[in-house]
Amino acid sequence: MSLITQKFKYEKMSRTLLEGKRVYQTPDGNKLASVTTILDATKDKTHLNRWRKKVGYEKAKQITKEAASRGTTMHKHLETYINKGVWQTPGSNPYHQQAFEMAKIIYKNALVDVNEIWGCEVGLYFPKIYAGTTDLLGLYKGEPTIVDFKQSNKYKREEWVTDYYLQLVAYAEAHNEVYGTKINEGHVFLCTKDLKYQQFDLTPENYNEYKDMWWKRVEKYYTNHAD
User: Fold this and answer.
1) N or C: the chain end with fewer CB closer than 10 Å?
2) How many CA within 13 A on the CB side of residue 118?
3) Residue 84 to residues 78, 80, 122: CA-CA distances in angstroms?
4) What is the mean pLDDT of each run of 10 residues along the chain (227 residues)?
5) Closest C-alpha to 106, from 5, 207, 187, 166
6) Angle at 92 (CA atoms; ends 89, 97), nearest 5 degrees
7) What share of the chain is helix, strand, coil (3-state, %, to 5)?
């Protein structure tokens, strides 16, 4: 049985192409850049490029592809559990088994503290500006929140995850704008491939700081991509 409580009527969004780039087709008729597109286009990639050069571009590509595949499978296990209330068996594929165990780690360490789930894989948009899909919306320890599930090859340092916070803010701002809520917190539930759990918390105390950073990134994106 689904764990979702339908508190809001979330509208479907589709992805399409605009001038060769993938964008979201929103319910108000606009085609908007995604949150991840904006963040990727405006981030400092110095350290990423240095890492690619160090390990070799082909090896870096392989590592990134494997991580993305593992993350997608982990997300699917969590999504299935939320939508159906049961875990989907991973089968004999070792990558699927690993992703399944990662999903269970996230469940045991954090998902059990989500008191109410309003939606899973929810499409959100800030009218005429941006759109995206958040992993989960609901109440975490009694407070309205945005949740994102992440996987990582290794333990993350706080200074590496600024974009995680900006992503949470972006979805909160979109939800507040369209649905009239006042969400001002979010949480990243992360599991490494060796089954270590981490959590990064966007709190009401630091929300405005990251909100300002997010809107500056949005401004930078549209300045650089002006017609």
Assistant:
1) C
2) 22
3) 10, 6, 16
4) 92 83 90 94 76 68 73 93 92 88 96 96 96 97 97 91 97 98 98 96 97 97 81
5) 187
6) 60
7) 45, 25, 25
